[in-house]
Structures are given as structure tokens and as C-alpha cells.
Amino acid sequence: MYTEKEGLRLGLVGWVKNTAAGTVVGQAQGPAAMVEEMKFWLSKEGSPTSRITRARFTNQKPIDKLEFSGFKTRF
């Protein structure tokens, strides 16, 4: 919920999901500066009840067009 709200605030599209292992996975697309801001938020702040010990971002690449609409939480 908090991550979805932050993604929307930054004007990003994509999704996020909490895993059974207690981690978070997802995809975020949008202006590079906003994606970087989201990565910073995820690695330093996160939701109020989160305990962040490590953040790893993979498969980063430029895209020609957005592949999602809106920013959603998947269950």
C-alpha cells in the first residue's frame, strides 16, 4: 500500500508484491529521475513497518514505451 502510493506520487507505472520470504519484488517504469527516487525510497525508507536490511535492483534497462498503466500492488 505505501509502496504503491509512493510509485503513484512519483508518476511511475508498474507493480510491487510482498513475497512469502519477506522480501519485495516488482517493476517500476517512468522517467529515469523518478525511478532513481523510487529506488532511494525503497532502499532507505519503505513502508512504516518495513525493516530494510538490503536493496538490490536488477534488470535495469531503457525502454521505448511504458508496459504498464498505473502502479499496483499484486497479491
From TrEMBL:
Residues 1-75 form the Acylphosphatase-like domain. GO terms for molecular function: acylphosphatase activity. InterPro entries: Acylphosphatase, Acylphosphatase-like_dom, Acylphosphatase-like_dom_sf, Acylphosphatase_CS. Gene3D superfamilies: 3.30.70.100. Belongs to the acylphosphatase family. This is Acylphosphatase-like domain-containing protein. It comes from Poecilia mexicana. The lineage of its organism: Eukaryota, Metazoa, Chordata, Craniata, Vertebrata.
